[in-house]
Design brief:
With 461 residues, the protein is an alpha/beta fold. It contains 15 helices and 22 strands. Among the domains are: 2-121, NAD(P)-binding Rossmann-like Domain (Rossmann fold), CATH 3.40.50.720; 263-352, 3-Layer(aba) Sandwich (Rossmann fold); 354-460, Regulator of K+ conductance, C-terminal domain (Alpha-Beta Plaits). Helix 6 runs parallel beside helix 9.
Length: 461
């Protein structure tokens, strides 16, 4: 696929890095030639220096032969204009714009008669949703949703006193025969382990669990990791993500929000209800953290725009007794290094939004994509179309599906609307037309092979 990306900032760079690794033809546009040269040296892509809203620059970048245009700069207006030019002047069939402001989200404004944006992404919103799910399920390292929330995947680190530690997957199933869940992956010391009935799970292993919404909390309780409700939250940083998250937590948690800038503090105090305490101060100020009771905090979240500040504040809060800490880390390398250390969870905004973008480059009837393990693995939800003659899936038992080694069918969502329900498939479960099939891929290089399963043979038409 030929893809143009406008903006070589952290979001654009992360998007380019992910798409390049899947053998797409990537051209990256930015006004900074030096930055482009660095990325050209590191990644297999072409850089074009210039203003990406100008037709001449887009033409030079190959917009007249482009399948997908992604405008990922930090400026909403630039992204909107660039999508409009790409669509109207060059006929680019699909456009995606990064938009921070909610004021642009009018359907007519973004439609073909407006700025011609087919899909909008907002990393700040994606991060907010990511953290909300971690607050809802505090024993998980990551939680992702499928089929409008009908099915969920949770990543859990097995504790020493967990019901799984020291036991095989088969033994765990025997203890909980009526619990509809499937363990689709086990990682030990960052290395994938066999995931069979006789696989013995150890303390510290990361396991990936797929189940229906109504079974997720019972599944996490059965695993035995502590699942204490998050009541007290401290947040350092009242920027876009901090404000979004604070609004979502109103009435759900007791929140203290630290912001270093006085004017921003005044603004936040005006935007948030009185019961939410906004304090001027540095989230890495030891005296301030002690005075505000960080040691009794269920969750400390560092959300400033500075990676180093977030890392320092999170490590300090953990050392001072915060039960769990999350750091927003823009640099992907930092996030990979820190995850699971003193910092419980390190979140990269670009990584949080990448699944939404991958959905648009997947072939076949793909309904959802989630990037896992810092982009190395993936969970894909596809729709089984056609019939037994035209489909690779319909009418076949799960054991008959030709999957790459290590890939696993973890759940099936069957039915629509109120009739939708999640099945945890057995080896003899038969796939039906319009089933939503959720597959875990331990290596994203398997994607092309799995995509073909959701492509209907030409005779379907």
């Amino acid at each position: 696929m030929r893809i143009l990306i406008l903006g070589a900032g952290r979001v654009g760079e992360s998007v380019a890095e992910t798409l390049v690794s899947e053998a797409n033809d990537i051209t990256l546009i930015d006004t900074d030639p030096a930055l482009l040269r660095k990325l050209e040296e590191r990644l297999e892509l072409r850089g074009v220096a210039g203003n990406g809203t100008l037709p001449s620059v887009l033409r030079g970048a190959g917009a007249d032969d482009c399948d997908l245009f992604i405008a990922a700069t930090g400026q909403d207006a630039t992204n909107l204009v660039a999508c409009k030019v790409a669509h109207d002047v060059f006929g680019v069939p699909s456009t995606i714009a990064r938009l921070r402001s909610s004021e642009y989200r009018d359907g007519e404004l973004l439609g073909k008669g407006g700025f011609a944006v087919d899909r909008m992404i907002c990393p700040e919103e994606s991060v907010t949703r990511y953290i909300q799910l971690l607050i809802d399920y505090p024993s998980a390292l990551q939680v992702v949703r499928f089929s409008q929330g009908q099915a969920h995947m949770a990543v859990v680190r097995v504790a020493a006193d967990s019901a799984l530690a020291g036991h095989s997957i088969a033994e765990f199933r025997q203890q909980h025969p009526d619990l509809p869940m499937r363990i689709v992956a086990v990682y030990r010391n960052d290395a994938e382990q066999p995931c069979e009935a006789d696989t013995r799970v150890q303390d510290g292993d990361e396991i990936f669990v797929l189940t229906g919404l109504e079974s997720l909390r019972p599944a996490l309780r059965a695993i035995g990791n502590p699942d204490r409700r998050v009541r007290r939250v401290m947040m350092a940083g009242g920027g876009r993500v901090g404000l979004r998250l604070a609004r979502e937590l109103v009435g759900k948690c007791d929140v203290k929000l630290f912001e270093a800038d006085r004017k921003r503090c005044d603004y936040l105090a005006g935007e948030l209800p009185r019961e939410m305490l906004v304090l001027q101060g540095d989230g890495a100020d030891e005296e301030l953290l002690r005075a505000e009771g960080v040691g009794e905090t269920d969750l400390f979240i560092a959300l400033t725009s500075d990676d180093e500040d977030n890392i320092l504040a999170s490590m300090l809060a953990k050392r001072m007794g915060a039960r769990r800490v999350i750091a927003l880390v823009n640099r992907r390398a930092y996030a990979e290094m820190l995850q699971g250390s003193t910092i419980d969870i390190a979140i990269s905004p670009a990584q949080a939004v990448i699944g939404e973008l991958l959905l648009h480059v997947r072939r076949g009837a793909v309904a959802a994509v989630h990037s896992l393990r810092r982009g190395m693995a993936e969970a894909l939800e596809g729709i089984a179309r056609g019939d037994a003659k035209t489909s690779h899936l319909v009418g076949r038992r799960v054991e008959q599906i030709k999957l790459p080694a290590g890939a696993r069918v973890g759940a099936i969502v069957r039915g629509e609307g109120e009739a939708a329900h999640t099945l945890v498939p057995r080896h003899d479960t038969v796939i039906e037309t319009d089933d939503h099939v959720i597959i875990f891929l331990p290596d994203k290089s398997m994607v092309r092979e799995v995509e073909k399963l959701f492509q209907v043979r030409a005779t379907f038409f």
